[in-house]
Specification:
GO molecular function, one term: fatty acyl-CoA hydrolase activity
CATH architecture: Roll
InterPro entries: 4-hydroxybenzoyl-CoA_TE, HB-CoA_thioesterase_AS, HotDog_dom_sf, YbgC/YbaW
Shape: elongated
Number of strands: 7
Number of domains: 1
Helix content: 10-25%
CATH class: Alpha Beta
Protein name: Acyl-CoA thioester hydrolase
Organism: Flagellimonas taeanensis
Family: Belongs to the 4-hydroxybenzoyl-CoA thioesterase family.
Strand content: 25-35%
Structural class: alpha+beta
Number of helices: 3
Largest sheet: 5 strands, antiparallel
Length: 132
């Protein structure tokens, strides 16, 4: 399915005293990958929320392979796992500039009506973008 890559540099505040990225920051890295995956389709989280659609994470899994370090240039590769319905699932790879695999992950998010808090099907405008 559709793949998007997003690169960024590790900031000092994301590391411990040894210059190693704190493991909890990887959830934010995956979020950055998701946001940029949607943006590449021409959709922003803000526009979805403004139209009444929320997309909370309902499942997150990360496998750590190798440490990322301060000032490393990282790339998050984000891939849609399957055609979205009420849920949307993504798979991720985090690699460094040398192409070394640092982490893999997957998330599942649910489409929710902002006003009712109830699950809804994936909006048609997203499905249409996936067919392009």
């Amino acid at each position: 399915m559709q793949l998007n890559s997003h690169s960024f540099r590790v900031r000092y505040a994301e590391t411990d005293q040894m210059g190693v990225v704190y493991h909890g920051n990887y959830a934010q890295y995956l979020e950055m990958g998701r946001v940029e995956w949607l943006r590449a389709l021409g959709i922003t989280y803000k526009s979805m929320e403004d139209s009444g659609v929320m997309l909370p994470v309902i499942s997150l899994h990360i496998d750590y392979k190798k440490s990322a370090l301060y000032d490393d240039l990282l790339t998050v590769e984000t891939r849609l796992k399957s055609r979205p319905m009420v849920k949307i699932a993504f798979e991720y790879k985090v690699v460094n500039e040398a192409g070394e695999l640092l982490a893999t992950g997957h998330t599942v998010l649910a489409f929710m009506d902002k006003n009712t808090g109830k699950p809804i099907k994936c909006p048609d405008y997203i499905l249409e973008k996936l067919e392009d």
